[in-house]
Amino acid sequence: MKTTFKEENNDFVMYFEGRLDTAAAPAVEKEMEPLNDCTGHDIILDCTQLEYISSSGLRIFLAILKNAKPKGSHVFIRGLNDDLRQVFAMTGFTNLFEFK
Amino acid sequence: MGADWFFLGFSLPAWITILTVTSIFVVMARSRIPAEVAFLGALTILLVTGVVSEEEGMAGFGSEPVVIHAAFFVIIAGLMQTGVLYWLTKHVLGDPKNYNNALLRLMVPTSILAALLNSVNVVALFIDAVKIWARKLNISPSKLLLPLSYAATLGGMCTLLGNSSNLVVAGLYLNKTGQSMHLFEPFIPGLILTVVGILLVMALQHYIPSRRTAEQSFETTSDYTVELLVPTDNPAVGETVEDAGLINVKGGSLVEIVRFDREIIMPVPKDEWVLGGDRLIYAGQINEILELKRTHGLAAADHHVWSINDIDTKRKMRTAYVDFGSSLIGRSMSECHFEQKNNVALVAVARQGYRVKGQPREIRLEAGDTLLLECPPKGDRLLEQETRHTVTFFDSHFVPQLGPKTVTSAIILILMFLISSMHVLPLMATTMLAAGMMMLFGCCRITGITRYIEWELLLILGATVVFSVAITKTGVADSIANEVLQLCGRNPYVVMAVMCLLASIVSEFVSDVGSSAVFFPIMYQQAEMLGCNPMPFVMSLMLSVTISFASPIGSNTHMLIYGPGSFKFTDFARLGIVMHIVLLTLTLVLVNIIYPLY
Fold first, then answer.
1. Selection from B124, B128, B105, B129 nearest residue B114 by Cα
2. What is the pLDDT of residues B486-533, one digit of tens each?
3. B362 CB contacts (<8 Å, ≥6 apart)?
4. Distance (Å) from the C-alpha of residue A96 to the closest C-alpha of chain B?
5. B250 in helix, strand or coil?
6. Which of B:409-468 have CB within 8 Å of A?
7. pLDDT > 50? residue B62
């Protein structure tokens, strides 16, 4: 599992590559710490290269959303494949996030 | 085949027979394979290896015990549908004042009915009525269910119809001698054994365990495990369990979350997020926790639910227990398709009246476990039929209408007994005639009549007759009979006692029917070798295989009460062993007084 953080057009963008499973979740959570201080920036979670997401991965996404909202930042999900889209739909996350 | 090859005095066909029959006993005692499958498997081996011919192999299925049982199932269906059995349960028992009075008022009529209607039918019939009594007397149902089972089996000893093994022994006797026994052949020893047995149960009533009731455990236990699902569109999704008001709820608390990918969160922190598809496991009072379905939009479901609106809100909770020999035993609900197939959802599991720790749908089920199931609002009877032999629902919805046909079917039954006991017709012809009359007079619906026939039992009975043939034909009966004679000397009383003891012990662990089929040819052979009248040997075998009361496996009626009484496997042993020893001794004495050896 690989993550890359970039700042693009004033947005914080996190690129995910591989499988975000339970084993990978703690490391990914640490790598996403730069997103915590997001005042004045929207966040884009780019899932184009993400193959799988477990419930632990979803919890990390949700934590980012819960942190960003009070700061007025929007969290967008980008590039979900069909399998991931189904997981998001089933868990009710489609109603929580905005999609690009 | 292999008749010239001998090992330890037995030919190859004899060894095949011994190994096949022994392996059935082991399979039945140690595995979950249904008895009828084990018996048919064994029959196949005997046929394929040429131990029995095709004609011999199939003869069992047209034998007297099979035909009488099949006809009797139709008669029972008629009595059930016209309300005769319902009327009996309503009016036979009366209103007991105390426990001793209840024991007597229960055991005497049920033993009489068992003699006429078969012990298994009577126990099945009276389970619900006995549970109502238990509630009235404020005692545990187990205190009455065990005596019910004893009384029925004891009463069943009095006639050939009373216990299945009686018919098997009578059928084998007919094959051997060409003489048919009459319906009341075992009446005198059976009656004395019944009276002594009932007195023993009353004298040793403190040996009858008091177990918590299975259904009440769901209502009253404050420490129970309930599983509820979060539908996708639930407003709690994305909230913490604390903010959503799901952690400490009225009557219980959240102990575990199982995510859609089976990740388990335990213990559950207050700030844990709720995701759609989560399974929330609560410990607490079931009725209160189930309120969460209404107040928080949670669902009892075996599959993912997108919206609470997808669930029929009129679905209802019903309790059922896992039958002996059920396909659910040893498996968890999540491993099988029981829920999907029957459109039910498991909510909670009780074992002997107590909480089983863990996620209900992951619990490995055991015989007698009580299940709380969310069921469709309609189709109770269909559900009960579809799940027959897997689970039995406590609140059966079958209430027949009483009317003129009730009288007709009762008359047919009485005529059947009169004709049979006066030897006007043989028992097989009488039961077939009665079954035909039941259908002719519209006492039971002809369409779907096969539903009431317990095909499994007929298959077992058919196969057991063949084992008996194989044991005789291959010389096994002859050799074992000789061996026992050499060991015990030529005293017929000692031989009979040893054989009955062995047969009754095998019956404790396997089944009375199987045991009687295996021991019949051996004992008959011994009687002939000793130059004795075979009747005392035959009768002592018939009675001794049914007094196996110490384990639930040996007794068909014990199996029926196991779940409703929340019994433990060992609960039957204390009283059962005493009854076994006393009644076996009495059987041997009585049979030898009534039927002289020479």
1. B124
2. 888 888 999 999 999 999 988 887 778 888 988 999 999 999 999 999
3. B332, B333, B334
4. 7
5. coil
6. none
7. yes
Name the residue with tokens 């404790």: B508
Q: In angstroms, rounded to a whole number, what is the distance separating the alpha carbons of residues B480 and B478?
A: 6
Can you list the residues of chain A whose pLDDT is less than 50?
Answer: none
**Token pair 């599992």 in the structure block, residue:** A1
Distance CA B229, CA B299 (A): 5
Q: What angle do CA B520, B526, B532 make, to 5 degrees?
A: 110
**By CB neighbour count within 10 A (0-12 exposed, 13-18 middle, 19+ buried), where does A10 fall?**
exposed
pLDDT 10s digits, B541-575: 999 999 988 888 777 788 888 877 878 878 888 89
* Torsion angle, alpha carbons of B13, B14, B20, B23, to 10: -150
> Which pLDDT score is estimated for B220?
47
Q: What percent of chain B stands above pLDDT 90? A: 29
Asked if residue B446 has pLDDT above 90, the reply is: no
Torsion, Cα of B184, B190, B191, B193 (10° steps): 180
Contacts 24+ apart (CB under 8 A), B239-243: B239/B273, B239/B274, B240/B270, B240/B271, B240/B272, B240/B273, B240/B274, B241/B268, B241/B270, B241/B271, B241/B272, B241/B273, B241/B274, B242/B270, B242/B271
DSSP code for A47: E
> A65: which chain B residues are within 8 Å (Cβ-Cβ)?
238
Over the range A47-57, which residues count as b (16 or more CB within 10 Å of their CB) and which as e?
A: beebebbbbbb
Task: Give the residues across from A8 on adjacent strands.
Answer: A11
* Residues B564 and B323: beta-carbon distance below 8 Å: no
Residues of chain B neighbouring A91 (CB-CB closer than 8 A)? 232, 237, 260, 275-277
**Alpha-carbon gap, residue B288 to B284, rounded angstroms:** 8
Comparing CA positions, the residue from B62, B26, B25 lying closest to residue B461 is B62
Our CA-based measurement puts residue A6 at a distance from the nearest CA of chain B, in whole angstroms, of 27
Q: Which residues contact B90 (CB under 8 A, 6 or more apart)?
A: B129
Q: Is B278 left (phi over 0), alpha (psi -120 to 50) or beta?
A: beta
Q: Are B293 and B299 in contact (CB under 8 A)?
A: yes
> How far is residue B300's CA from residue B293's CA, in Å, rounded to a whole number?
8
From the list A55, A59, A65, the residue facing B260 with the nearest CB is: A55
DSSP state of B299: B
ipTM given for this complex: 0.91
- On whether the CB atoms of residues B474 and B17 are closer than 8 A, the answer is yes
Indicate the length of chain A as a whole number: 100
B279: β partners: B229, B258
Q: Residue A6: name the closest of A43, A37, A36 by CA.
A: A43
The DSSP string of A70-91 is GGT--EEEE---HHHHHHHHHT
Q: Tell whether omega for the bond before B147 is within 30 degrees of 0, i.e. cis.
A: no
- If phi > 0 it is left, if psi is from -120 to 50 it is alpha, else beta; for residue B461 that is alpha
